[in-house]
């Protein structure tokens, strides 16, 4: 069939509806390696502008680190560009096995299997492990990729209110009779930057004979004293049955993900997970880069510690200046503005002052909870954060929202 005018019209209408609703996403074009300072073109067609980056997942500042780039180059030289195969046909090199072992060691698990991305890991893991006799009980704010993975699995689905342990316990009681029960949560929730109560979750799992699944994509490498993740932070290292995480954020930021955990569960994924069986092997360049990253952060916590100091400086600076933050301790620092338009205007004014941060509003966050989500990196130097803080204060003054209560801000701008 041809793409007829009528067909085209359907999509043109849908796209203009998105634009009218203010939901159309426009990409800013970066003309530089990922870093704390980048050259950006926005809007398209305008001149490049050098800005401080406050919205990358480059938590440890490793995305463009020369040692990592060098290791990736070594991978290219020694193991080639691509594998042209899935893992189980002829796509497994020695370095893939090394990276899996290294991840198991770092995360404190029995075994690990790589996926092309954490999205793929989450889409494959539930179906590979669970059947219609089982139940998945997920926190209501889990990442979209987990929701998609659950949809692909025949096990019964249920949820508990965000981080509400009483509610989770009720659900565990309700589903006592299921063959397997799996509690599913993010480690660090990416919109609010709050951590799952993994100590309590593990306690409940033990009480009700349930398994625990944690997606630690926004934690691996920097949460916990040695950066192992939310399980380390919560004192339950070694007690999580399945961890999924990404190589696309703190761990160098290229791409790739994994399922790590109990040996039998990981083996089930090797046998049955469809994104593993039917999608190409991670390229050697990225495998060697990721190995270099893991070696680096296993040796020293220097970057993770710098990130913590930067985060404390940023949170205290914004709080003292009179902004309303989502409480927390992670490098995801949401500055609450409540009104969607205000969040967009605020981000634009920041950009004019050389600060790159994005305003989030419904449906990415709940209605009336619009915000600028800032993300701190070990690549930020004090002067970056000071300049960014100055810009936030200037724009905050312009809109007269400093040292105001939530209600006062809402009274001025609406929710
Ligand atoms: C980013 C993210 C993913 C997706 O990771 P990719 O490797 O980019 O596919 C999955 N889960 C969570 C919680 C994430 O934040």
Q: Separation of termini?
A: 46 Å
Segments where pLDDT lies below 50 for 5+ residues? none
Would you give the CATH topology of the largest domain? Answer: Aspartate Aminotransferase, domain 2
The profile of the biggest β sheet is:
7 strands, mixed
Cα radius of gyration in angstroms: 22 Å
Strand proportion, as a percent range, falls in 15-25%
Number of strands: 16
The average pLDDT value, as a whole number, equals 97
Strand order of the largest sheet: 4-12-11-10-7-5-6
CATH class of the largest domain: Alpha Beta
Bound molecules: pyridoxal-5'-phosphate
Structural class: alpha/beta
Give the total of domains.
2
**What is the general shape?**
globular
- Named CATH architecture of the largest domain: 3-Layer(aba) Sandwich
Total helices: the number is 16
**What percent of residues adopt helix (DSSP H or I)?**
40-55%
Specify the CATH homologous superfamily of the largest domain: Type I PLP-dependent aspartate aminotransferase-like (Major domain)
Account of the protein in words:
By secondary structure, the protein is of the alpha/beta class. The chain has two domains: 25-54 and 301-413, Aspartate Aminotransferase, domain 1 (Alpha-Beta Complex), CATH 3.90.1150; 66-299, 3-Layer(aba) Sandwich (Aspartate Aminotransferase, domain 2), CATH 3.40.640. The protein has helices spanning 5-20, 66-79, 87-90, 94-107, 118-129, 144-151, 165-174, 198-208, 230-233, 263-272, 274-277, 284-299, 302-321, 340-352, 382-398, 406-413; strands at residues 29-30, 37-41, 49-53, 111-115, 135-139, 156-160, 181-186, 188-189, 194-195, 211-215, 242-246, 257-261, 332-338, 355-356, 358-360, 370-375. Strands 4-12-11-10-7-5-6 form a seven-stranded mixed β-sheet, with helices on both faces. It has a four-stranded mixed β-sheet with strand order 1-2-3-14. Strand 10, helix 9 (230-233) and strand 11 (242-246) form a beta-alpha-beta unit. The N and C termini lie far apart (46 Å). The structure holds pyridoxal-5'-phosphate.
């Amino acid at each position: 069939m041809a793409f007829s005018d009528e067909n085209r019209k359907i999509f043109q209408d849908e796209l203009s509806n998105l634009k009218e609703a203010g939901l159309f996403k426009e990409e800013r074009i970066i003309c530089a390696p990922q870093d704390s300072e980048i050259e950006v073109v926005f809007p398209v067609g305008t001149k490049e502008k050098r800005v401080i980056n406050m919205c990358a997942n480059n938590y440890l500042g490793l995305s463009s680190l020369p040692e990592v780039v060098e290791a990736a180059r070594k991978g290219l030289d020694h193991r080639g560009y691509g594998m042209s195969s899935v893992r189980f046909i002829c796509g497994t090199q020695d370095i893939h096995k090394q990276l899996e072992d290294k991840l198991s060691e770092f995360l404190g698990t029995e075994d690990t299997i790589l996926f092309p991305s954490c999205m793929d890991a989450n889409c494959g893991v539930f179906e590979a492990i669970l059947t219609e006799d089982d139940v998945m009980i997920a926190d209501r704010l889990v990442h979209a990729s987990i929701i998609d993975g659950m949809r692909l699995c025949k096990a019964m689905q249920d949820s508990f209110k965000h981080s509400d342990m009483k509610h989770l316990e009720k659900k565990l009681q309700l589903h006592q009779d299921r063959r397997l029960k799996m509690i599913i949560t993010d480690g660090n929730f990416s919109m609010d930057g709050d951590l799952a109560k993994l100590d309590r979750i593990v306690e409940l799992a033990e009480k009700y004979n349930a398994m625990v699944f944690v997606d630690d994509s926004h934690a691996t490498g920097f949460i916990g004293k040695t950066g192992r993740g939310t399980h380390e932070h919560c004192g339950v290292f070694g007690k999580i049955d399945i961890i999924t995480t990404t190589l696309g954020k703190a761990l160098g930021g290229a791409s790739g993900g994994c399922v790590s955990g109990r040996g039998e569960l990981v083996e089930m994924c090797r046998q049955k997970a469809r994104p593993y069986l039917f999608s190409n092997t991670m390229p050697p360049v990225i495998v060697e880069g990721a190995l270099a990253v893991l070696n680096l952060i296993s040796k020293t916590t220097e970057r993770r510690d710098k990130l913590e100091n930067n985060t404390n400086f940023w949170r205290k600076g914004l709080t003292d200046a009179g902004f309303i933050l989502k409480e927390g301790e992670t490098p995801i620092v949401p500055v609450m503005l409540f009104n969607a338009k205000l969040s967009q205007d605020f981000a634009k004014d920041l950009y004019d002052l050389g600060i790159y941060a994005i305003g989030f509003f419904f449906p990415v966050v709940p209605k009336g909870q619009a915000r600028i989500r800032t993300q701190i990196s070990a690549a930020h130097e004090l002067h970056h954060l000071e300049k960014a803080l100055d810009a936030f204060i200037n724009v905050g003054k312009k809109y007269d929202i400093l040292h105001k209560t939530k209600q006062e801000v809402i009274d001025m701008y609406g929710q």
